[in-house]
Design a protein that fits this description.
Helices cover 41% and strands 17% of the residues. Helix 2 packs parallel to helix 4, helix 6 packs across helix 8 and helix 8 crosses helix 11.
Length: 292
């Protein structure tokens, strides 16, 4: 199968390329950069005509659309740019996929949901109504809607709090600060599902083999705050938890609103016969031991 990955130079895009290239022909498009020996074309996905021409010329069997404007505060400051890069770009990719009835997988986010209860114990399942609190969440929800409305061979995969070896992330940053004797400041009242891109990419490969189109939540098992993740990191690398400073959302004065809870429950992932991902604690431990 010929697979085109948008945003192939990103954290998830790189991991997907490495995972899928073992069995498939993989190429990619991105705004800039290159990645190993993969064929990467420079493309502005907000340009409808250029996107249509590029994707139809490549003529892939599947497009994984992982490119996004993911800086939540930047999206709040630049709403038009957020909607263009997260919704309009998704529409443009979907329109190109229409020509040859190409499959498409759209990578979305837990931020399409919002709960003000940080002690909520049940995660959002795939069929729960979206209720984004931020421009970022809204733009990704709009992208979902556009892809579903234009294609019948489409997957929407919602993910959250990604970490992996291809880009600096909250896990690697926390480890580095702790090892340098600095004090990481971690929020205790924002909770979601930490997810290792290695596990996520392998799960996506399994999904693609099934051709079971639809919406899925794919995250490592369990929910945690950034503070709880940092405490787990302390246990792994042998540093006292007192090294972490615990704060609330309000103390950080963030520009864009964040949900207190946006944890994802892969109900339909599990009921479709797919294996749930391992607990986030195991994934964090492996990531640190292998890459840091």
């Amino acid at each position: 199968m010929k697979v085109l990955i948008t945003g192939i130079t990103g954290l998830l895009g790189k991991e997907l390329a490495m995972t899928l290239s073992k069995r498939h022909e993989v190429c990619g498009v991105a705004r800039g950069g290159s990645f190993m020996d993969f064929d990467v074309q420079h493309l502005d996905l907000t340009d409808r005509a250029a996107t249509y021409q590029a994707i139809t010329k490549i003529n892939p069997d599947l497009v994984i659309h992982s490119a996004a404007m993911s800086n939540v505060d930047q999206c709040e400051k630049e709403p038009d740019a957020a909607l263009q890069q997260n919704a309009i770009a998704a529409r443009n990719v979907a329109l190109a996929c229409q020509r040859f009835d190409t499959e498409m997988l759209y990578v979305s986010t837990d931020y399409v949901f919002n709960s003000d209860n940080p002690r909520r114990t049940n995660g959002f399942c795939e069929t729960d109504a979206v209720n984004p609190a931020s421009l970022y969440g809204r733009s990704k929800a709009d992208g979902e809607l556009l892809v579903r409305s234009l294609l019948h061979k489409a997957y929407v995969v919602r993910v959250s709090w990604l970490f992996g070896k291809w880009r600096d992330n909250f896990v690697s940053q926390t480890v580095k600060m702790l090892q340098e004797g600095k004090t990481p400041v971690m929020v205790s009242d924002m909770i979601s599902s930490p997810t290792y891109v290695k596990d996520l990419s392998e799960a996506i490969e399994t999904l693609l083999d099934s051709h079971a189109y639809g919406t899925y939540h794919i995250t490592n098992n369990g929910f945690a705050s950034r503070y709880e993740i940092a405490c787990e990191i302390c246990s792994i690398i042998g540093i006292p938890k007192a090294a972490i400073k615990q704060v609330t959302r309000n103390e950080l004065h963030l520009l864009a609103p964040r949900p207190a809870f946006s944890g994802l429950e892969g109900t339909y992932w599990r009921l479709s016969g797919f294996k749930p991902l391992r607990p986030w604690q195991e994934a964090v431990k492996e990531f640190i031991e292998r890459t840091i």
